Amino acid sequence: MKILVTGGAGFIGSHTVVELVNAGHEPIIIDNFNNSEKSVLKGLRKIIKKPIKCYDKDCNDTKILEQICQKENIEGIIHFAAYKAVGESVENPLKYYENNIGSTLSVLKVMIKLGIKNLVFSSSCTVYGQPDQIPVTEDTPRKPAASPYGNTKTICEDILRDTITAGNPLKIIALRYFNPIGAHPSALIGELPSGVPGNLVPFITQTAAGIRQKLMVFGSDYNTPDGTNIRDFIHVVDLAKAHVSAIQLLDSKQDNTYDVFNIGTGTGNTVLEIIKTFEKVNKLKLNYELGPRRAGDVEKIYGDVEKASKIMGWKVEKTLADSLKDAWRWEKKLMKKNG
């Protein structure tokens, strides 16, 4: 299939492009490089041994999006393009509502107009808020999100479901992912946070590299084994493969279907466990400090991923150690590149 990948130069998008090619599909990227870098395209070219078609455009522009989909005869869309920093969304909610919801509306309008049926939507475990029980399943009630970022994902899921309920002949899967970490084993693509990282692992690798003086752990008094948050950390390559499984599943579905899947490892790790594992597998010491809690953070969450295994035939292949080794290999590559 010819698949348009919105935000395809981003962290998860770029790894998904590789896995789509590996599975015999033809991905085409649209990315405005607001939160990604063009150097990613060079990394992709080296991995897949050919240039990747990329439009430097904003998918909030419905007219442009329609022209690209028509020109390229797009058969499916994987929609990543969204802002994703929890902290920034608390400070600047309108930016998040405008971009994350606007781009999703734009994608749906174009799909309906052009008769493109298959959509995989990048959702998040943040739709569960702070759940009453873990692990969460797809039937766990969604709760008010702890941040505007999380709320944009909840709202977008509702928009997708309502679009299907209205009888539109679309086939949609929303993937609720947990915490993607790591990098491609080749160290040719990985996470490229602009400015101060919003996620834990880039903060860890930048501290190990000496870019950051120390790592601040937000909160040490949570009701968890060591007082730090619990999250489900999944290797980005495993997550990318879930998108391929999802788009292939949609191809075999009837029109007018909507489904959601948790995509994670099925287990949780505390922030301190991540730090200690990183130190152990990469044989180094990190300078970290326990600090106060951060607004918008959920205490603990990890997911039950049996549904994805059973229905999509997808499962995690990489370990936490693999993820943290690959993340450090990628950081060292960046250090070398940046002198």
TrEMBL record:
InterPro entries: NAD(P)-bd_dom, NAD(P)-bd_dom_sf, UDP_G4E. Its cofactor is NAD(+). Pathway: Carbohydrate metabolism; galactose metabolism. Keywords: Carbohydrate metabolism, Isomerase, NAD. Residues 4-325 form the NAD(P)-binding domain. Its EC number is 5.1.3.2. One of its GO terms (molecular function) is UDP-glucose 4-epimerase activity. The keyword ATP-binding does not apply. It catalyses: UDP-alpha-D-glucose = UDP-alpha-D-galactose. The keyword NAD applies. Homodimer. PANTHER family: UDP-GLUCOSE 4-EPIMERASE. Belongs to the NAD(P)-dependent epimerase/dehydratase family. This is UDP-glucose 4-epimerase. The gene is lnpD.
